[in-house]
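In the lab's daily routine, each protein ends up as an entry in a very long ledger. A line of letters takes care of the sequence, but it says nothing directly about the fold. The fold becomes a row of whole numbers, each drawn from a learned catalogue of backbone shapes. The protein below has been through that process, and both of its lines are reproduced in full:
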Amino acid sequence: MADQHRPFYVLLGPDGAGKSSVMAEVAARLPAWRTLSTDHGLIGPGHELVGALRRNVVEDVLPHLGTYYSADFLASVLQTAVVHLRDELERHESDVPLLMDSYYYKILAKCRLAGIRHNPMYTWWRSFPQPRAVVYLDVSPASAWRRSGEGARLNPLEYFGDRPEWLGFDSYQRSLRKLMLEEVRDVPVTIIEEQPSAAGAAEAVVEVLAP
């Protein structure tokens, strides 16, 4: 059930959808709204540790996943982002509309794609308040691949295989999309088809949030 006590929405999408840019555009267009994310540059003051842990995952954990670090360890570190978003939601003023980046949906899907099919954390995450609606910012794997510099800017949680190659990326992104939409099947979802620019995507998102 959606949380009826907070005007709370989630912006979701695959890798390369441009959610960070769209979040920034939406914040400028809807100044009365609050945007919440764990992305670099969008984390609020006092939460620098959240950004540091995100960097540690990319720089320290992922290069040694399966050797120094297990998939369960990876999920445990990623959970810090989920709990941070939940904590911020609980502290959020109920009369201010909120747009949150991804919530636990994308992290849960990525954990499953990393080989963690079942984990007690998933049940806990799914018990968190649910948004009134999800806005799904879509992008084709081909466009996302081009945006990544044909794999040059990818991390190992964005493709299947030992190195970033088109087939592994395409397969991963299609699986990621399927799992995320499966996770939000009980929440109202609006899919924004691929847009030519962040400004166009933000305009489409604003049309959904504040028609």
